[in-house]
User: Fold this.
Amino acid sequence: MGFGISFRISNLGFRIYFLIMSIIPITNKCNQRCVFCCAEYRRNENISLERIFKEIEKTPELITISGGEPTLSPNLFKIIDFAKKEGKKVELQTNGVTLSYFNLAKKLFLAGVNLFNVNLPSCREKLSDRITRTPGFYKKRIKGVKNLEKLGANIRLTHLINSLTYEDLPEFADWVSGNFTSIKYIQFSFIKIFASDRETPYPVPSYLVPRYEEVEPCLISALEKCNKYKIDFVIDHIPPCFLGDFANYHIDFIKVKNNAKSELQHSPLEKKKIKICRKCKLNNFCFGPRKDYLKLFNNKILLKPITNKF
Assistant:
């Protein structure tokens, strides 16, 4: 369990409201075997309801229920019900496959889930099957999102940037616009190599990790398309100096800009500034590159400090 930031975003404009949240993994069970998954390296299979309820009680506003795949947990509705009775908002992280069953999607919606955070690894069926290692689930995932749209649910898409998908980022934006009508926003997240700052073997194969400079033109093109289609977005785990005119859509930038006063004194354990960061105009709005990325490339990475007025 841990703490992070979540957002509510208006489709009428990029308006972000910060909510202190608690991320609660309730199971390791999953119906997919994604090549980039590192949940099993940090999460216990059996988390007691008592511990989960205590975490909910001390969380000010929002809980994010995660897994594994949380819809496979027999305790899911008990947890949602408890959170709602405590007056908390609920975000559900899911791969969307089980939501292809309309009755389950409806039951979760009526239970009070405020935001469905659906991971979509690729807009290409064959590539999605390769990434998730569960052929045949691509169509179920898409049907799950469409079921949520029919219900009028709030939907966020999470798209993981990696070596297999980064060249398709502009196409992904086109695909989202062409296939869905009510997506609240997309979070583009650069792949994590391991789940925390601890010294462990890389649970994610290094071949899945592209260099920042390779991703940059494709990501900027995708963000330009999102702007064109009026799809809101945020970006994380790739430094904002690789986002061109979209640096202010980076999660670090947003957190600091929204008066998170202690953020720079207590930088996230996952990230670290390096010497060249001192020259950057974004230095006060950025926590630096990920430590696992620095380690993978032996600190030999290309950063692009912004020296002109931002």
